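Try this one yourself first.
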């Protein structure tokens, strides 16, 4: 079933519009909340993915966070310059670069869970538990398609 047609499509009433708007609003809120740590929302994703061992290479991070490899490289450069992570070539395969959080990177990653939930909770204030669960279920369904 098609939910949109050429005649019925209105950009500012589309799923894409609302998803982009929601993403931008949440990113802005998270950036503000993380200002004291001097990191951005995308950098937060990298640090948390690494601290939970969900990703250990630039490719894995790019895939997991849906960030193109060029932008990922630039973000990793900034985090490495700030001594929050380090890169090491794999001894088994010199083409592979492994990433490791430094002590400073681990310290910042440990602080994020005490900050970011408040950002989401403020946005979800008017949601019931059922609405929250349904929103999460539908977004998962949408992103898994």
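Now uncover the answer:
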């Amino acid at each position: 079933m098609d939910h949109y047609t050429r005649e019925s499509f209105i950009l500012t009433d589309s799923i894409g519009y609302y998803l982009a708007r929601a993403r931008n609003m949440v990113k802005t809120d998270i950036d503000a909340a993380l200002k004291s740590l001097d990191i951005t929302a995308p950098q937060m994703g990298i640090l948390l993915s690494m601290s939970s061992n969900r990703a250990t290479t630039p490719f894995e991070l790019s895939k997991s966070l849906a960030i193109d490899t060029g932008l990922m490289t630039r973000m990793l450069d900034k985090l490495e310059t700030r001594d929050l992570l380090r890169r090491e070539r794999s001894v088994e395969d010199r083409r592979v670069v492994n990433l490791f959080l430094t002590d400073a990177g681990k310290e910042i990653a440990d602080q994020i869970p005490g900050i970011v939930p408040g950002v989401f909770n403020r946005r979800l204030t008017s949601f019931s538990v059922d609405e929250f669960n349904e929103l999460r279920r539908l977004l998962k369904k949408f992103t898994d398609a």
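Discussion: Helices lie at 15-33, 41-51, 58-65, 69-81, 103-111, 116-123, 129-144. Residues 15-33 form the longest helix (19 residues).
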